[in-house]
Specification:
With 143 residues, this protein is mostly helical. The protein has one domain. The protein is built from 6 helices and no strands. The radius of gyration is 16 Å and the shape is globular.
């Protein structure tokens, strides 16, 4: 696998680490709620991008199952962001961590292997572990 996507992928995980570290300094619930919303917004952007990858693969092959899945991350993220605004901000962080794993597993199942570079799924697994771990820690800090 080319090194450039690795650099960009791990650089994209850095904000999750930063948000997690910032969560340790939140002393008021409203501050944590704002930080959670920012975390979820950034996560939604990443998950929407990953859904777009499925969309790009599904269009040329006319794969209806993959087209349908391509919209799930974006729709689920919108629901999680609204949930953060109206309720406890920790639970949506836990749910988003799970959503990253669902998208990872869908990648493994739905992506045509002929188009996936060697090492991609190891890379995605590592990023998913980092991102979901930081989301879970952030959620636990708020409890």
């Amino acid at each position: 696998m080319n090194k450039l996507p690795l650099y960009f992928g791990y650089a994209g995980a850095l904000p999750f680490v930063l948000f997690m570290l910032l969560s340790f300094g939140m002393d008021e619930a409203r501050h944590f709620q704002a930080l959670s919303f920012i975390q979820l917004s950034y996560g939604a952007m990443i998950l929407s991008f990953l859904g777009g990858v499925h969309w790009g693969q599904a269009i040329p092959s006319n794969n209806a199952k993959q087209m349908g899945f391509a919209m799930v991350p974006t729709i689920a993220c919108l629901a999680l962001m609204v949930w953060t605004l109206v309720a406890d901000p920790a639970m949506p962080l836990f749910a988003m961590a799970g959503l990253f794993w669902i998208v990872f597993l869908a990648d493994k199942r739905l992506m045509p292997l002929g188009f996936i570079p060697e090492g991609y799924f190891t890379f995605r697994r590592n990023l998913t572990m980092i991102v979901s771990g930081t989301l879970i820690v952030s959620g636990l800090v708020s409890l």
